[in-house]
Design a protein that fits this description.
The complex is a heterodimer of chains A (132) and B (174). With 132 residues, chain A is of the alpha/beta class. Chain A has 3 helices and 6 strands; from the N terminus they run βββαβαβαβ. In chain A, strands 1-2-3-4-5-6 form a 6-stranded mixed sheet, covered by helices on one side. Chain B is 42% helix and 24% strand. The longest helix of chain B has 21 residues. Chain B is of the alpha+beta class and 174 residues long. The chains are: A alpha/beta (132), B alpha+beta (174). At the A-B interface, helix 2 and helix 3 of A face helix 1, helix 2, helix 4 and helix 5 of B.
Chain lengths: 132, 174
């Protein structure tokens, strides 16, 4: 299995998902022209990662970590990010409770609130990390 | 005090148009030193409004035979004192209006906690539309506005109404 990498554009987030380290990261702006196409490939990769880890019994040594470093996220993207979070949180049943780090620019209350709303909806604790 | 126009767009909204309008907005607003939180809220309402126009504008059969300009989507941002006034207007098919109006009316009765609860309910239940929206955009616009969304439907012809929505974002006074 290979890591997933997709470079960022003006309206599409950068995505780096490593099956070796278990670090999954989204950066930049998320308002893709075809939001389902963009996020479904990430969801498919995560499903494959889960199946591969279960098949081999080998998970990354470090905790599974999702870093969200978005400066803007439209509502259509939010529902897919919710699905991604829901999926990796479900891996808690394998003893792999993920860490979710939610980064936001210092002073960007809106972006921080977005994280809190998702955390509330998932009933899961995020870490909120302001960026200078 | 008069409104200061920041964006005034009349015409079709496509994906590329949204990018152009965002760049234009950033060029005009960054220089004014708007508080980041306010800036992000205006940007959210702008993008969600434009995406709604792009996804949900009705193609009214009489568009090309009557005054075409009259049926064109309209989008504007103006500033008045510490308020950003964001107005969007587009055609909607009459058959979709009852559900749409019901959702808008429901949102208008919710306070901030009610909006948060409705957001949670909507995203958790996965009530997504075929066009990719979940109604989340309207909820998010209502959340960040802090003011009620005002809207009106004006009959255009037997197929469509013109839908006009106004959202105000207030910048905290310094």
């Amino acid at each position: 299995m290979l890591p997933f990498y997709s470079g960022s554009t003006e309206f599409t987030p950068g995505a780096e998902f490593s099956n070796i380290t278990g670090l999954f990261e989204l950066t930049g702006v998320s308002r893709p022209e075809n939001v389902s196409s963009f996020y479904n490939q990430l969801i498919a990769w995560l499903r494959a990662f889960e199946q591969e880890s279960l098949r081999t019994g080998e998970w990354p040594k470090q905790p599974i970590t999702l870093n969200i470093k978005l400066t803007y996220c439209n509502s259509a993207s939010s529902k897919y990010i919710f699905q991604i979070m829901e999926m990796i949180i479900s891996w808690s049943k394998y003893g792999k409770s993920p860490i979710i780090d939610w980064y936001y620019d210092e002073g960007d209350d809106k972006m921080r609130d977005d994280g809190q709303d998702l955390a509330d909806a998932l009933d899961y604790e995020f870490n909120y990390i302001p960026l200078d | 005090m008069e409104n200061i126009a920041i964006i005034n767009h009349v015409g079709l909204i496509q994906f590329e148009t949204i990018g152009e309008l965002i760049r234009s907005f950033k060029q005009r607003v960054d220089a004014n030193g708007v508080h980041m939180s306010t800036y992000k809220k205006v940007l959210l309402v702008m993008i969600e409004s434009l995406e709604n126009i792009m996804k949900h504008s009705a193609k009214c059969p009489e568009n090309l035979t009557k005054s075409f300009q009259h049926y064109m989507p309209v989008f504007s941002i103006a500033k008045r004192k510490n308020q950003f006034i964001i107005v969007s207007s587009n055609s909607v098919a009459k058959q979709n209006i009852p559900d749409f109006r019901e959702r808008l009316d429901y949102l208008s009765h919710l306070d901030q906690q009610g909006l948060k609860d409705f957001y949670k309910e909507t995203i958790t239940n996965g009530m997504f539309t075929k066009r990719g929206g979940a109604g989340l955009g309207l909820i998010e616009m209502a959340k960040v506005s802090g003011n009620k969304i005002t809207y009106e439907f004006t009959p255009m012809n037997e197929y469509c109404d013109q839908f006009k929505m106004t959202i105000i974002i207030e910048e905290p006074l310094k």
